[in-house]
Specification:
This is 3'-5' exonuclease domain-containing protein. This protein is an alpha/beta fold. The protein is built from eight helices and eight strands, in the order E-H-E-E-E-H-E-E-E-H-H-H-H-H-E-H. The protein has a six-stranded mixed sheet with strand order 1-4-3-2-5-7. A two-stranded antiparallel sheet has the order 6-8. Helix 4 runs antiparallel to helix 5, helix 4 packs parallel to helix 6 and helix 5 packs antiparallel against helix 6.
């Protein structure tokens, strides 16, 4: 695996409160205008029906002096986490890059602003028949600087035991894996759109609208998570998104 960008690992309510107060209510440790963000779900093998529970969240940039922030949600106050995520997701000044999350939605009246899922980008610009491109496929197409890292991320994911997400604290290799995910996302984005912010914003607008549409559909068409305890952070999963968002 690659050498990780610096990270801040948040495992307490006080740490999260300080982070949000410092960065305008957003769970970031960077003023970068393009950030990758990743929701890590519990494995379906872990305590079903809670497989859609978010166990970790990470956001970060690819700038040399940038940092990534990793939230381990089991140790944090859910309402505080959701408030921070809502602020970040609704921030029109920051472009947020996701992967494999457009069939989901945070069920807390979140209005996405400038969020782009790379699977939608791949389907829109590369192959309309591929709705679930892997990170290896995406990174190989959208820039050589991301190709090797994307391959490493997918390889590590395939070997990772589901039990790894149940540990607290998370293993350092798992933390590095999370950071590498968001670093890959940002590299792929810049590989396709470059670094000029104005040009990026103009070109990603249709994809951002598409991502938002799918996110909203996930909330509206989810089967519901009424049995999940309030102490967890969950997302809605759309059982019909394949027809709605293609």
């Amino acid at each position: 695996m690659s050498v990780p960008i610096p990270r801040q690992y948040v495992t307490s309510t006080d740490e999260l409160q300080s982070l949000l107060a410092t960065y305008g209510g957003k769970p970031v440790v960077s003023k970068a205008k393009v950030v990758g963000m990743h929701f890590q779900f519990a494995s379906p093998e872990n305590d079903s029906p809670y497989s859609d529970r978010v166990v970790a969240f990470v956001a970060g940039s690819n700038s040399p002096d940038g940092m990534a922030v990793v939230l381990q949600l089991v140790d944090l106050e859910p309402q505080q986490v959701v408030a921070g995520l809502k602020t970040l997701l609704e921030d029109a000044e920051t472009i947020k890059i996701m992967f494999d999350r457009y069939g989901y939605g945070l069920s807390n009246s979140v209005a996405l602003e400038n969020c782009v899922d790379l699977q939608l980008l791949y389907q829109n610009r590369v192959d309309p028949t591929v709705a679930h491109a892997s990170l290896t496929q995406i990174s190989s197409h959208f820039g050589s600087s991301a190709a090797k890292l994307g391959l490493e991320v997918d390889a590590f994911s395939s070997k990772l035991s589901p039990r790894a997400w149940l540990k607290s604290p998370l293993d350092p290799l798992v933390l590095r894996h999370l950071v590498d995910i968001v670093k890959t996302l940002v590299r792929c984005y810049h590989g396709e759109f470059g670094t000029g912010l104005k040009k990026c914003q103009e070109e990603v607008w249709p994809l951002a609208l598409m991502t938002s549409k799918c996110w909203n559909s996930a909330v509206q068409n989810s089967a519901g998570e009424t049995s999940v305890p309030a102490s967890t952070v969950t997302v809605a999963r759309d059982v019909t998104w394949t027809s709605v968002c293609q």
